[in-house]
Amino acid sequence: MPIPARALGAALLAAALGTTACVPVRTHQGYIIDKELVDSVQPGIDTRESVLQTLGRPTFTSQFNEGEWYYISRQSANLGYQSLKAKDQTTLRVSFDAKGNVVAVDRMGKDLIASVDPYGKTTPTLGHKRGFFEDLFGNIGTVGAPGTGGPGSGGGGNGP
Questions:
Q1: Cβ proximity of 73 and 90 under 8 Å
Q2: Distance between CA 70 and CA 60 in Å, rounded?
Q3: Which interval of the chain is the signal sequence (predicted)?
C-alpha cells in the first residue's frame, strides 16, 4: 500500500520541526578577545593610552581601585526555552600602577562565575513585620500631624 504524498510531506515536516528544538542556541556576550592583541600588551612597557588603543574600551573598570580594567567575554548556550548557561568565560584583567603603566595582565576563566539564586519572593529584613492592613492604612494621620514636620505641625515647638 503506497504512502500518499501529503502524509509523507507532513511526516517529513514534523520530523524537521521536531529536530530543530534539540539544536542548542549559542550566543556570545561581551568583548571579542583577539589573542594576538592581548599578547601584545606587555607589563612595564604599555600605558593606559596604549592599552586603550590596542584593546579598546574595557567592559568595566574597578570602582575601588582605579588601577584595574576588565575585559569580559562569555560563550553561552541553551536548548529550546531554557535559560542561558555559560559554557565558557574569559576575564582579562589589566592592572595599572599610579602612573598609568601596565603592571600585570591576568586571564581568568569560568571558575569565577558566581551563581546568585534569589530567596523566595521577598527580601528578608530585620525588625518589625508589617501586615497587609498596616501597609494599606499605616500612613493615615501621619501627614501633617504635629511633631512630624508636615504642613500642620507649625514648625515644632510649643506653638502660639
A1: yes
A2: 5
A3: 1-21
| Of 75, 78, 73, residue with least CA distance to 25 | 78
146 pLDDT tier (thresholds 50, 70, 90) = low
Q: What is the largest CA-CA distance in the chain?
A: 106
- Counts for the chain of helices (H) and strands (E), in that order: 4, 5
The H-or-E segment that residue 71 falls in is strand 68-78
Domain locations along the chain: 29-113
DSSP summary character for residue 87? E
Residue linked to cell 594576538: 36
Percentages helix, strand, coil for the chain (3-state, rounded to 5) are: 25, 25, 50
Which CATH number is correct for 29-113, 3.30.70, 3.30.1450, 2.60.40, 3.10.450? 3.30.1450
Give the mean pLDDT of 76-103.
83
More confident residue, 46 or 22: 46
CA distance 76 to 73: 10
Q: Does 98 score more than 80 pLDDT?
A: yes
Residue 30's φ and ψ, nearest 5 degrees, are: 90, -155
Whether the full predicted model's pTM is greater than 0.85, yes or no, is no
